[in-house]
Amino acid sequence: MREALAAAQRQNEVLSTFVALSEAAATTDDLITLARHVGDVLRRNIPHLLAVYFTRQGERWVADLASDAVPPEFMALVRAGLPLDTPFLAQTVAARTPQFFDHWNPAEQGTPYAEQFQAAGAAPFFEGGRAVALLTVGLVGQAVWTAQQRQLFLAVYQALYSAQQRSVLAQERQRSLEAFMNLTELIGTETEPLQLAQRARDFLQASMPEWSVGYYEWADGWWRALLADVPDPELRASLFAGLPDTTPGYRAAVDAGRPVFFDHWNAAEQEFTHTESYGKAAFAPYFRDGAPVAMFVVGSQHRREWLPEDRAVFETVGRSLGLALERAWQAQALEDRSRRLQASEAQLQRSNRELKAANEDLEAFAYSASHDLRTPVRHVKGFVAMGRRALLDGQLEKAERALNVMEGAADQMNAMIDAMLALSHSSQRPLDHRAVHLDALVDHARANVADEGTGRDIAWQVEGLPQVMGDAATLQQVLTNLLSNAVKFTRTREQAVIEIGTQAGEEAWTVWVRDNGVGFDPAYAGKLFGPFQRLHRHSEFEGTGIGLATVRRIILRHGGRIWANSVPGEGTTFSFTLPHIRPLELDGG
To answer: Using CA atoms, how far apart are residues 371 and 136, in angstroms rounded to an integer?
Structure first.
């Protein structure tokens, strides 16, 4: 009975130690501070234990922290650093889990001045797949670890490891956001697809040099590499020669329509010769008009499973590259159209208008990369510091609020990226000109914005609407955007009044959407249709500033024009024209 009570008491001490250390780990991510706390906890429970905390510095393990009772000679040795191949340290790193060494032999372990230890233990810490720190302990006067002592060491290691991984994850998330911003700025005005891929490659390999990177374009049923940074010359030759589009990895990405990730890469199953040494890979597909045209691929020979932070980096870079490729293809298409249509003055004028609009959007994109998209990143960085201080002060509610702000900033940035992609797509999709019933488009647009007006009194005034010439899908975007704006900017009215009407002209229909909302200062009407131009604060009316730019782009492609009239406090009227005949299309679509 006495032994059972003693065992229960020891178990309670271990559990109490784990709880106390977990609470400490929740308030700080400074590993040196936590390692010092771990050493104190272990010493209180195992008085004859001494601890040394190592960090990797170059090709040596150097002691950053040690128990006071460590012998001076041994302390001088570990301060100078132990080689990476020191047996017990190398074994621990290779195992990637804590190791226990009974009947310690200093000579065999390559650790002179450690004769007073009869048993030892070591636990590794990793960052990005690389060992960066080790917690080591030695037992004086005891040659074999007891089960309770092992349990205690594993418990404190787990608490310290969890804190270290939280710190690593927070740093990776911040690096991912900064990476997106830096890469977006880097490729913002580049228009050559291969150069864009090379810059994305350079960016990835600067942070993860072990990754192999390839950029491929599809032609006649084959994926052929334009860029292939792989060490194997036979593999490189086969990639430039091309792989059939039935190759499983490429086919999976095309079928999914998004990046796909492969753990435990199997070259035979993937029908991918000369890749037997790879452990993991990822494929990001890019499409034009619904057809696959390009692929960005990475692989690693050093790890076999994708970590969440690595996936986030690849998806972030892939998304930024996709946006840049959209811009490059658009600029290339506009340039080709301009060359083909120089013989037609009317077509040339239309080309110039579209080129001007594309250049304005490209300038706005470059500006947004250095300004608009930096805003949520600054929010994240600022609230990371605030959250860290709150954790150090034990203010968990304040820390949670900071995390919520960071999450909101990330959502805002994603919304802006998606809006930029929508603007880009509005210029690339071929137009299918035919007779379109405006009343059907308006009915559909009202259904699309119904949720935005839930619980509100909205009076819809819709005249008998005519049949017009245009592309139904993109005109649907126009009307949905304009009605959504009308619903949004009338939310302060007790009763919103939204009117949709038309007027016939000799050459075109004029369509208008009128509301009794908050309006805007007419002096700023010139900025209204530019990307990322907002005339109201985001806190008052949400939005990305892309919707009206998309509307303008679509109307220009239809050969029309768009403008707005407004009286502050009384409402706004958006008007656009649609020619009675099909305009000259630069791409024949």
So the answer is: 47
Kindly list the domain boundaries of the chain, sorted by start residue: 2-171, 188-335, 430-579
Distance CA 101, CA 90 (A): 13
Q: Is the dihedral of CA 268, 273, 276, 279 positive or negative?
A: negative
The residue length of the chain stands at 589
Query: What pLDDT, on a 0 to 100 scale, did the predictor assign at position 587?
Result: 40
Residue of 352, 373, 386, 229 whose CA lies nearest to 297 = 229
Specify whether the CB–CB gap between 26 and 164 falls below 8 A: no
Q: Which residues lie across from 288 on neighbouring strands?
A: 291
Q: What is the DSSP string of 286-332?
A: EEETTEEEEEEEEEESS-SS--HHHHHHHHHHHHHHHHHHHHHHHHH
Q: Work out the average pLDDT over 386-390.
A: 72
Contact 124, 96 (CB under 8 A): yes
CATH superfamily of 430-579: Histidine kinase-like ATPase, C-terminal domain (3.30.565.10)
Region of 331 on the Ramachandran plot (φ > 0 left; ψ -120 to 50 alpha; else beta):
alpha
Six token digits for residue 517 = 């909302």
346 pLDDT higher than 60: no
* Strand blocks (E) in 193-322: 211-219, 222-229, 243-244, 260-262, 280-288, 291-300
Single-letter residue type at 212: S
Q: For 96-108, how does the pLDDT look when each residue is reduced to its tens digit (9 = 90+)?
A: 999 999 999 999 9
Judge residue 288's burial from the number of C-beta atoms within 10 Å of its C-beta, 0-12 exposed, 13-18 middle, 19 or more buried: middle
Neighbours of 182 (CB within 10 A): 15
* Of residues 463, 470, 474, the one with CA closest to residue 436: 470
Buried b (16+ CB within 10 A) or exposed e, 535-572: eeeeeebebbbbbbbbbbbbbbbbbbebebebeeeebb
Residue identified by tokens 């891929």 is 197
The CATH class, in words, for 188-335 is: alpha beta
pLDDT in tens, 433-449: 899 999 999 999 998 88
Q: Which CATH class is domain 2-171?
A: alpha beta
CA dihedral (70, 74, 77, 83) positive or negative: negative
- Least Cα distance to 490 among 530, 448, 518 occurs for 518
φ/ψ of 310, rounded to 5, equals -70, -40
Domain 188-335 in the same topology as domain 2-171: yes
Q: How many CB atoms lie within 10 A of CB 313?
A: 22
| CB neighbour class for 511 (10 Å; exposed up to 12, middle 13-18, buried from 19) | buried
The tokens 């930024």 sit on which residue? 320
What pLDDT does residue 539 have? 47
